[in-house]
Design brief:
Layout (H helix, E strand, L loop, with lengths): L5 E2 L2 E2 H6 L2 H5 L4 H9 L1 H16 L4 E3 L14 E5 L4 E5 L30 H10 L1
Parallel strand pairs: 3-4
Antiparallel strand pairs: 1-2, 4-5
Length: 130
Amino acid sequence: MAKEVTYRGQTLEDLKKLDTREFAKLVKSRTRRAILRQTSEIENFVAKCERCKAKNKQIKTHLREIIVVPKLVDCTIHIHNGKQFLPIQIITEMLGHRIGEFALTRQKVKHGAAGIGSTKSSMAKATKKT
């Protein structure tokens, strides 16, 4: 038996019926301000997502500052992280966050070995060669 998912006391079905401005009343103040400033941009993005979903096309975007609204839940959006597009599945817990938060731009450093000059022995090798 799956637990019913709610956001601020409202079910997902109720949230999907809300307008973007009405959803803004449920989020915290900073997010509310961002939603109200970019309402048309968010609504255009939601419309783009619905068109792409109908055509079975990938949804690719560079718009990392878009706030996740209920109409985007259950979409897979490919978000640009500066190098490539990362597929992100939008879930209910992401409501009110920016989509860029889920496509990390920095990765953990994976060096095979220390670079020249990072240790005293490698510094000696570098000076010996020249």
